Model the fold of this input.
Amino acid sequence: MLLNEYQLRIVLPECNFSAQTVNAIATVSKDISPVFPYLNAVLKGFQYNDQEKILTIKRKGHLITFRPREIAITKLEDEKEAREVMEELRQIVNETDQNREHIKPDYNSRKELKSSEILKFLPKTNCKECGEQTCFAFSYKLVRRESDITKCTLLFLEQHQEKRKSLLSLLQGSGYEVPEEHFKSDSN
Done:
């Protein structure tokens, strides 16, 4: 097992001590960097630097940075959530390591999306059904992974099928988790 033991510590965000979230840093017992290119392929990492041995992913609202002997996780509610996320990551690291011969390593970084790129494919009606005041505000939340594409209900109408497929492909190509059922026929 590659990632077995770790020590977890909770830290407050450096720039905001009154923040409602915490960060966590797990110091791992041995170098886990050999699995990074495989994790990058499996988790569709956001940024990967093979030379520096740093992999950063965005997952479930958290920014997660893997270093050879450390894993840092942002935007956690509390220590309980930190432990849950870390256990999930430990399992993913170990499963990926065990299945390396079946995974093509990925040494690339993905392109960081901009709100304006996402906005091109939204209906641009400012309908507010997503909970935001404008489509641009919604696209900004998508870029920061603070919202989900399914909140744009108009995008899932038949008339926006091509825009939806293009946007979902763009999101997926940039490392966003997009369930396959979103690519299928219209749900409305």
